[in-house]
Amino acid sequence: MKKASEIGLNPDAIEAQLMGYLAARFFENLPSSFETTTGVQQPTIAGELFLPECI
Q: What is the DSSP letter of 1?
């Protein structure tokens, strides 16, 4: 196991980088959950888009 900083990631921004990565996969309609990592039966696209209601 390596530290985030050892592979070029900012350790203070790991969660933000992860959210950006997952959001990018969502908008490209790419799965982010797999049988080998989470045990799902088929690759799954994570997330849901909620838009604000216009007033």
A: -
Delimit the domains of the chain by residue range. 1-55
Instruction: Give the H or E element holding residue 38.
Output: helix 35-38
When computed from its CA atoms, the radius of gyration of the chain, rounded to whole angstroms, is 15
What DSSP state is assigned to residue 2? -
Residues 18-46: tens digit of each pLDDT: 899 999 999 999 999 999 988 899 999 98
CA distance 5 to 10: 6
Cα(29)–Cα(35) distance, rounded to whole angstroms?
Answer: 17
Taking every pair of C-alpha atoms in the chain, what is the biggest distance, in angstroms? 50
Phi, psi dihedral angles at 44 (to 5 degrees):
-125, 135
